[in-house]
Structures are given as structure tokens and as C-alpha cells.
Design a protein that fits this description.
By secondary structure, the chain is an alpha+beta fold. Helix content is 25%, strand content 39%. A seven-stranded antiparallel β-sheet has the order 2-1-5-6-7-4-3, covered by helices on one side. The radius of gyration is 24 Å and the shape is elongated.
Length: 184
């Protein structure tokens, strides 16, 4: 059976790495309760990590490793395609040599950590809200407020209010204390 070649961003491995391990992490909080006991709270899935080792052999092996190393220095996440791991957005978090490289043989170790686009989107929305707050008004939601009512109070169309607040996915659900950016 021929497996799909491993790819990350614009790089395709000439042959798949020799070994790999995939780990799944779950976030758990531990709370001490009376009488020396503990209560654990499941905070949900953490991240998935792909670790492995590979080698480049033959003429140009060291040049191939340098190409892979240049990919490591690129900023941001990329799409990782692995033969047994589902395609995911991931960060290239580790690349190391496991022995002295030769021109025709290089052994290396690598790690990829799955990216959570939802977190990045949330941070972008927060930055956009902060920038918009400098250009407009920020309304703090009080008990009984509705998004429609906030729009009416400031004389802004509901659609404009939603565009200025991409973090509000459901216009019928806003929380007391939530910051709503009112565009100018």
C-alpha cells in the first residue's frame, strides 16, 4: 500500500518520515476539596501533537534538510498533510538533528502542534474590536439590552453593528457586561 506523501505548506517530503507518534492532550483542572480529596474538571480538548523522526539519504541529503529547515523559519501555521493524521492547520514547532549531518545522510526529529483557528479568529476579533473602539463608541451591555435596542440608541443599522462586532455570532444572544463596538 502506498501512503500519501507528507506535506507542509509548500514542502513535500521525498519519502515519509521513518517514525511518528501522535498524541492528543486534554485540559483538566484539579481542585482540592475537603478531607484530602480532589475534584477534576474537564476543560475540553487541548491540542494534538505529531512528533517523528526521519532521514534524508543519497546525493543532496543535506541540501534537502536545509530546504526543510528554511520552512521551519517561516512564520505562522500551515496545512499539514500526513499519511495517517487528518489534514490540519499546524505549527512547525521543532526541528533538530539527531546526529552529525553528512552530505549524503541526515537524521532529524520534528514536531508539529495543531493550530486552533478559532483561537486565532478570537484574537483577531479582539484586536479589531480594540481598533474599532478607538474610532467609535464602546457600549457595555446592561441587563435588558438587546442588540436591536443598542443599534437604535446610537442610530446605527443593526447590520453595521454586526459588521463592527464579528465576535457576535448570534444577534439574539448578548451577555450583560459584554462590550459592543458601535461604529461611527
Amino acid at each position: 500500500m502506498r501512503l500519501t506523501p507528507m506535506r507542509y505548506k509548500s514542502y513535500t517530503w521525498p519519502h515519509n518520515p521513518r517514525t511518528y507518534a501522535i498524541s492528543f492532550e486534554r485540559q483538566v483542572a484539579v481542585h482540592k476539596i475537603p478531607f484530602g480529596r480532589y475534584c477534576m474538571q474537564d476543560l475540553g480538548l487541548g491540542r494534538r501533537v505529531l512528533r517523528g523522526e526521519g532521514e534524508f539519504a543519497g546525493a543532496g541529503a543535506y541540501e534537502e534538510f536545509k530546504t526543510l529547515a528554511s520552512l521551519f523559519y517561516q512564520d505562522g501555521p500551515g496545512i499539514l498533510v500526513h499519511p495517517v493524521w487528518q489534514t490540519a492547520s499546524a505549527y512547525f514547532t521543532e526541528l533538530s538533528l539527531t546526529e552529525e549531518p553528512l552530505p549524503d545522510y541526515v537524521r532529524y526529529r520534528f514536531t508539529f502542534a495543531e493550530d486552533f483557528p478559532g483561537i486565532r479568529e478570537g484574537l483577531r476579533e479582539l484586536a479589531a474590536s480594540a481598533a474599532a473602539a478607538q474610532e467609535g463608541t464602546v457600549h457595555t451591555v446592561a441587563r435588558g439590552d438587546t442588540l436591536w435596542g443598542v443599534a437604535g440608541r446610537y442610530g446605527v443599522a443593526l447590520e453595521a453593528l454586526l459588521r463592527a462586532n464579528p465576535g457576535i455570532k448570534n444577534p439574539n444572544l448578548i451577555q450583560v457586561g459584554q462590550q459592543v463596538v458601535v461604529p461611527v
